[in-house]
Amino acid sequence: MTATPTGPEGSTEKVGQAVEKIGHSVEQAVGDIGGYIRSQRESAQVSLRQLARTAGVSNPYLSQIERGLRKPSAEILQQIAKGLRISAEALYVRAGILDERPASAVTDAVLADPTLTERHKQVLLDIYQSFRRESAPGAPGATEE
Prior knowledge:
The protein has helices spanning 12-43, 48-55, 59-66, 74-84, 88-95, 105-112, 118-135; strands at 5-7, 10-11. By secondary structure, it is mainly alpha-helical. It has two domains: 15-99, 434 Repressor (Amino-terminal Domain) (Orthogonal Bundle); 101-139. A two-stranded antiparallel ribbon has the order 1-2. A hairpin with a 2-residue loop joins strand 1 (5-7) and strand 2. It is flat, with a radius of gyration of 21 Å. The relative contact order is 0.09.
C-alpha cells in the first residue's frame, strides 16, 4: 500500500510513524515502571507476594506490572509505593503521570530515606520548598548574605 499525501505539511506515512513512535514510548514507560518497581522491591527485600498483599492486588497482576505487560493506575502505584516505603511521586514520574520536578540533593535525600513515612517526606519537602521560596532572590523578606 502506498502512502497518499494528506497535505503540504506531511503524509499518511509521517502520521503513522508518529503514532508508532508514541506507542513505543508508552510501551517503554510501562516497561520502565515495571522494572523500577521490581528493582525497588528486590532492594527492599520484599517478596512479590508480600508486595501484592500490601498493595491489594493479585500476585499475577503485580507480576504483569513488573514485566511491563500492564500499566497500573495512579491508585495502584500509590499502594505499591506505600508497600515499598518509597515516594509515590517517584512512581508517578516513572509512569509518566507526573512531570519530573527539578530535584536537589536535599529532595533526593528525603525521598530516598526509608525510615521516613510518606507523610513525613511530604511535610519535610513542603517546608524545604517554602524556605527556598522565601530566600529566593527578589522574594519579599529575602536576606542578602
